[in-house]
Write a structure and sequence with these properties.
Radius of gyration of chain A: 24 Å
Number of strands of chain A: 12
Helix content of chain A: 55-70%
Oligomer: homodimer
Largest sheet of chain A: 5 strands, mixed, barrel
Mean pLDDT of chain A: 97
Distance between the termini of chain A: 50 Å
Strand content of chain A: 5-15%
Chain lengths: 600, 600
């Protein structure tokens, strides 16, 4: 058992489940090869094992401390950051002329998975830095890029996203941080940001914050928010950090998990104003920010998949070793104890984890492939289709892995029993780390509202229709395989239920949006279950075909495992949607009708 | 919001939902009154607030440390222990001649709930001491009682249960600790015990361990285990502790939660043998131990209920205060923000928590009332019926609150969003503390096997039939109330499903026990959901009747809250059993068939 993701899983997902090799036909990737992709993944795996996994528990034990106005992090995190940057992962997906390797998005994300599985809270820093640099690449002026981008690519500078404030959480239209224009075109920012991950640390020369603020006099609400680049240190013309900007670390938040990722309160403008540079257009900042938020949402899904996968793999290793009692059929107390994995309920806990972890990983890489197509597909129509489908799927890609990742890590503890509750094993830390994922980058309810209130209705339902069409194509393909027909029919039935209930809820939004959206979180959950079933049907299809022509016993067993996990999902999880559809169909109002005074 | 349980909830559960006042007719309680019961509850609440709640976070932050062979606990825990003991709670349920107050079991447990809600890990010490003392009361010789009981009643001594060992977890038949008979009738014990809660601390003069060990030459397996009282210090004739016994603290386990309850590894007999006194009959130790285990199992259910209740009440208070965004219908960004509780999904999270927390509390007090009837009902037939029903229900009383308590505490975090993930609020600690409950006193799977493999089949199904009969009586009563007819019918249907599937699984146990019991955990879950629905139907019945004659607006709202929580449970949770019954009916073997080599 490695501390990362089984490389066999990546080869299945990238080259069998997805058609990553086909990317090599695209002009951007003519210099690439499958060998290059694989060697990037191997490098990621090696660095993850050598520089990230080893201090995961130490980082959990030794939270960053607030010292002399700055956050001090354990030195292992600095070494991990340096190894990550030196291997070129911060800029791997950039264009060659930007200093990058033009690595496809889906390969980059597969590489990131190794780090998330090894040590999510140290990997949080590069994760955010990559997203922040992408903002600068898209919305920055040439001057700004010249000053700040190279350092974010080679690791001299990290990046963050500065959205949330103490007075508001998910409601970004209510932020109070404001910006005052300077005569030279720059701005001075004033205000406070909270829950800023990686907002301070002591291992880079600089930190580049992507900050949302309201230019004085801007319209109220979400339409008056602008996006600024606010560095910790201002830089000179060569990009070398000089004067300290007016951004102060006001405090560190202490959390249940992710200890080694600082979570900060930052004060802007306590000494005259923090210098900020407008990115993109004024008042369009929230729209711009959605690039980073959407990237981060898919990233959170991937993080959740990896934490779930790690828990699965650690609990599997334990279950294979640990003797524990006997089977119900064994009556002789002197008979040898069996190992945990021989107990049916332990296999259930392992198989469910496999279904959640590998299903999530498949979904997140599928989403990354859509992102790739949206950017580099030769056909403009296909680019648009990929973008539209990804837009619909984003709340699901964020939420389903997060929710069922928590369930998976819960099961991983249960496999170990009392041992799983102790700090002698990583399972309890994974459980704590995972719990953040249904919260950050939009709490679960936000994504339900986004899906049902926005994604499903946008473009008169065009995105929803594309989703149905795509899943239906998968169903049709699988129906021709005898062993998969039952699953395909079950998915078709669930999809039919979804398509029956969706227009009811969409129509009601016009007259009674509060009631129409009251059960949006449940809608998100069934949408997620259908999406996950789709991912498992697709994996089963691929595995079934591969098994037919497979002569290698280990590979054959691998494919049988995929087929059994798919069976599990269709037999054990998808049927649970029936009761949820009944609630949605009837537009149930039991929670909606609950009165505050009835809570006592 | 108090740090304990709303006193209104107790008055409902004890005097409306249960008929606790009727106990006053029994000879044992002639000196009692409702006022006395209530004043015990008020005292418990006051001590819980004054001595337990305040150091809950500190105990979490400052784990006990291993120092000079002993566990050192924060001083606040000692003061809490002293206050608890001085108020007489350790011996409140004992007979007057034992030095007790003859308090009914159900009132004692309601009093304990206040402590569990305030600070479960400090309350762990008295919880275990009460159980250990009950063992001594039942199985101890007069001499042993004379030596050890009084100190366990006034707080000079605590108590523990010593079952688990490093080499086995749930499989007690495999324990290796052994006992050698001394000529004077005492024994010397040798071996190691693990996960012993409260196994050492520094605030009592003595600790009395209830230890399972195998007398040399005993039969193998569960039928060769005996029960011993093994004190930390041997006592003189007056009961004063003298010589240190050969029980050594070998180490402290570090856990995800319950930090302030020491979890210990204890070594017996490293210096010639730990003196132990046989309790009850030789080789009958496991059967005897079931008294304490069953008491602890109901206790764990109660603990889980209280942690869930605390999370509910803390997240409710936050949701009432915190402004956050606007409703979907509000289009004006300048309109005032609404409070969290005004969002439908937040009300769902709160209502579900109410359904789980109050449903669990009702179930645990119902179980305590059965325990009471088993001991003190005037009619021998009724005593036997209560004992039988409690025996069937024990795995459910342990498991349902533990499982759905975890779900409730998860929701409590979600209500707060990012704030809930920080250590600024108690929610994340409750989430960690709660996670132990599906593990200790028998992991979830053990209770599934106990329920389906033992409880349902024992006495040719007599216990199961009594369960069905009791639930059916509740259904019949509720059917006469127009507003409850739908719920009553739904419960009758689910109970019908259970009674259809049970004989299938019982019959299969004769020929293929491994397959018959493969889905026992799912059986436990549906049994639990039906039991919870029964508890909610009963609460709804009481609330509906009370509301009809209620003139007080606050009380009326309280009853409306009960009715809405019942509606929630029947509308949102019970229907989920349909998919589970389908699995059970078909004796699904997907996890059972999964092969080890398919996991890669």
């Amino acid at each position: 058992m490695a501390a990362t993701i089984n490389q066999r899983e990546f080869s299945f997902l990238l080259y069998e489940f997805l058609d990553t090799e086909k990317l090599l036909e695209r002009p951007r990737y003519t210099e690439h090869s499958r060998d290059i992709f694989d060697s990037m993944l191997e490098t990621a795996n090696k660095i993850a094992v050598d520089f990230f996994a080893g201090h995961n528990a130490k980082g959990d034990e030794h939270e960053p401390v607030f010292e002399a106005g700055s956050a001090k992090v354990i030195p292992e995190a600095a070494r991990a950051w340096r190894a990550f940057a030196d291997a070129g992962f911060l800029s791997a997906h950039w264009e060659v002329e930007e200093g990058g390797l033009q690595l496809p998005e889906v390969v980059l994300r597969a590489a990131m998975a190794a780090f998330f599985a090894a040590n999510v809270s140290t990997a949080g820093y590069p994760f955010l830095t990559i997203g922040a640099a992408n903002m600068l690449r898209v919305f920055g002026t040439d001057t700004l890029k010249h000053s700040y981008l190279a350092a974010m690519g080679d690791g001299r500078s990290s990046g963050t996203m500065g959205l949330t404030e103490p007075g508001q959480g998910s409601s970004l239209g209510d932020i109070k941080t404001y910006a005052v224009a300077n005569p030279d075109g720059t701005y001075r920012l004033f205000g406070q940001k909270m829950f800023i991950s990686g907002g301070d640390q002591d291992f880079t020369d600089n930190i580049v914050h992507m900050v949302l603020a309201r230019i004085q006099g801007a319209p109220p609400g979400a339409k008056g928010i602008s996006l600024f680049l606010v560095p910790k240190f201002l830089v000179n013309e060569e990009g070398a950090p000089g004067e300290r900007n007016d951004v102060a670390l006001a405090g560190l938040l202490h959390k249940m998990g992710w200890h080694n990722t600082t979570s900060t309160v930052l004060s802007f403008g306590e000494q005259g104003g923090a210098v900020g540079y407008l990115l993109g257009e004024p008042h369009r900042g929230l729209a711009h920010m959605f690039q980073m938020m959407n990237e981060a949402r898919i990233g959170v899904g991937l993080v959740a998949s990896c934490i779930a996968y790690r828990g699965f793999s650690e609990s599997l290793a334990y279950a294979k070793e640990r003797p524990q009692g006997r089977l119900p059929s064994a009556k002789d107390p002197l008979s040898k104890q069996v190992r945990l994995i021989e107990h049916a309920d332990i296999r259930r806990l392992l198989l469910a984890q496999k279904a959640y972890a590998e299903g999530s990983l498949a979904l997140c890489l599928y989403a990354s492939a859509l992102f790739e197509d949206q950017q580099t597909h030769a056909d403009a129509g296909e680019r648009a289709r990929a973008a539209l489908l990804l837009d619909v799927l984003t709340p699901v890609v964020k939420s389903w892995p997060s929710k069922y990742g928590c369930a998976a890590n819960d099961m991983a503890i249960q496999v170990l029993g009392g041992a799983g509750y102790t700090k002698d094993y990583i399972l309890e830390q994974l459980y704590r780390d995972q719990r953040l994922n249904p919260i950050h980058e939009g709490a679960e309810a936000i994504h339900g509202l986004d899906l049902l209130g926005r994604k499903v209705v946008m473009q008169r339902g065009e995105g929803y229709r594309l989703f149905v069409e795509t899943v239906t194509a998968e169903i049709e393909r699988a129906r021709d395989v005898a062993d998969l027909k039952g699953a395909a029919d079950a998915l078709a039935a669930a999809l039919g239920e979804l398509s029956a209930v969706t227009p009811i809820l969409v129509a009601l939004q016009a007259t009674d949006p509060d009631r129409a959206l009251a059960n949006a979180t449940i809608y998100l959950d069934v949408f997620g279950k259908i999406t996950a079933a789709w991912m498992w049907l697709r994996q089963a299809y691929v595995a079934d075909r591969a098994l037919a022509g497979c002569s290698n016993a280990v590979d054959a067993d691998y494919y049988r495992g995929k087929l059994q996990a798919a069976r599990y999902y269709f037999q054990w999880d998808l049927p649970g949607t029936a009761a949820q559809f009944a609630l949605l169909r009837s537009v149930d109002t039991v929670p909606y009708d609950m009165q505050e005074s009835w809570f006592q």
